[in-house]
Every structure is written in C-alpha cells, then in structure tokens.
Design brief:
single chain; alpha+beta; four-stranded mixed beta sheet; 7 helices; about 45% helix; globular; binds zinc ion
C-alpha cells in the first residue's frame, strides 16, 4: 500500500490492493438471480453483472464474467479493485449514482491505453485516459498522481472547485459494511 505523507488530503491509498484478491471467472450473467441476492441494494431485474467484489472474513474475491473479451475482463477486474481501494480508504460514497462514475473514471485512468483501445468505444476511452492522466504524466498509482487524476474526475462530474474532502463531506459519505458489493454494467 502506498500511503500519503503529511496531513490527509483526501487520498490515502493510491495503489490497488491487487495481491489481496483472488480472481475467479464465472458465468455471472447466467446467475443473475443469485447475483441479485448477493448484492446489497435493490436492483432492477434486468441488471446484469460483469463483475462482483466480495470482501469477507473468508477471503477477498473478484468474480468476473467469463464471456467477456480479454481487454474487457482486465478492465472489469481493475474496476472491482478500484471499488476495493475506495472502500479500504473510506472514500466510497453511499450514492451509487455518483460512486459508479467515479469508479469508472478512476478505472479508465488506471487501465493502459492499449487495453482501452481494444474495448468497445475504445477511442473515446483512450481520449478520456489521456485527459485523466495528462497523457500518462500523472500516475494514479502514486498519491500525487491520483490526486491530480481526481481533480479531473471532479471536473468531469461538475464538482470542480470543491476540495476532495469537502465533496465527500457534502455528500455525507459513510463506509459500507464489508460484504458483497455489486457492480452494474462494467
Ligand atoms: Zn462498479
């Protein structure tokens, strides 16, 4: 884990907790009902899952939809690890309508251009990646780089000008209890 020095400035953990997670490929789309039962919020019956994050005492697992292409699987795994990073850092928001786009944008910043360009809408994703990372000059694995990425995430989400902690406080974020967390779409 990479820990920011000095006073807390919103981002404490910048590295993804890759080592702590077992990745399993599952046919999640075939088991929608089960996935719905495992998730922690009411869901539309048509919701599909490409990834699920399970953090529990028995271990941490990420389930990824087996029928995805390799670039999409890689993207989905990073997406779930970003959920895990934000939960561990206490950054995750209760409001999924805001939390999901934040996670998605951090994921786009972290996934390499080559993988992004092989995904559906790859060109758009690569352009977003360049914007979020200042063409790779801001490395989201470092506290400083991740803070810079987050400044642009806030800009894209129309929250520019507020400090990260301020935005989080305004939204009255609480940590969720550890457990299964769903991921809608990617
Ligand atoms: Zn998600």
């Amino acid at each position: 884990m990479s820990v920011a020095r000095g006073p807390r400035r919103g981002i404490v953990l910048s590295r993804l907790p890759r080592r702590g997670y077992v990745i399993r490929e599952k046919y999640l789309r075939r088991f929608r009902t089960l996935a719905r039962q495992l998730s922690d919020a009411p869901l539309d019956p048509d919701t599909t899952f490409d990834g699920l994050l399970h953090m529990g005492e028995d271990g941490n697992e990420i389930w990824v939809e087996a029928s995805l292409s390799e670039p999409e699987k890689r993207f989905t795994i990073v997406h779930e690890l970003v959920h895990a990073r934000r939960q561990r850092a206490g950054e995750d928001l209760d409001d999924d309508l805001l939390e999901e786009p934040i996670v998605e944008l951090e994921t786009i910043a972290r996934v390499g251009r080559r993988t992004l360009s092989r995904m559906p809408s790859g060109m758009t994703l690569a352009v977003l990646h360049d914007y979020l990372t200042r063409r790779g000059r801001d490395d989201p694995e470092t506290p400083r780089g991740l803070r810079a990425v987050y400044e642009r995430i806030w800009t894209l989400l129309g929250m520019r000008g507020r400090r990260v902690e301020g935005a989080v406080a305004t939204l009255a974020a609480h940590r969720r209890p550890a457990g299964v967390r769903r991921s809608r779409g990617r």
